[in-house]
Amino acid sequence: MTTAISSPSSVVRLGGCLCDAVRFEVPDAPDAPHLCSCRHFQKLSGALVMSWVSFPLADLTWIGREPAWFYTYPQETRRGRCPACGSQLCALDDGATSIAFTFSALDDSSDLVPAFQSYAHDAVPWLRPVTDTQPTAAAGS
Length: 141
Description:
By secondary structure, this protein is mainly β. The protein has one helix at residues 39-45, and strands spanning 4-6, 11-16, 22-27, 31-36, 50-56, 61-64, 68-72, 77-81, 88-93, 98-102, 116-118.
C-alpha cells in the first residue's frame, strides 16, 4: 500500500528520518527507482547497496526540520541527513529539477521496484544484480 494522502489538487508520498525530526512530502510521481553499488555509496551508507528514487523538486515540502546538507564527491551533489539522528535521506544535484530519496526514507516504498542497478560491477560477488532477481513472497506468507 502506498503512503499517499489526497489533497484537492494532488496525491503525495510521505517520508522522513528515523527519529521523525525531518519529514517531507513529494508528489506521487516516482522516477528511476534503482540500486547503486558504487564504492562511494557503500562508504557513505555503510551498506552494500543504496536504493534511490527521484521526485519532482518543485513540489517538495519539508515538514518540521530540513536535513543538514553536505557535499560529497562529485562536489555538485549535496546529501541530506537528519541533523538529529543522522539518517541518510536524499541527494540533490546543483541546478536539478528533481531530488532523489532513499527507498528507506519513504514511509512506504513497497510498490517501488528497482529498474536497474548502477555500478553492479562494484557489488560484492555474492549479490545478484537486480536484473537477475524476481520478487518472491516470504516463506509462510
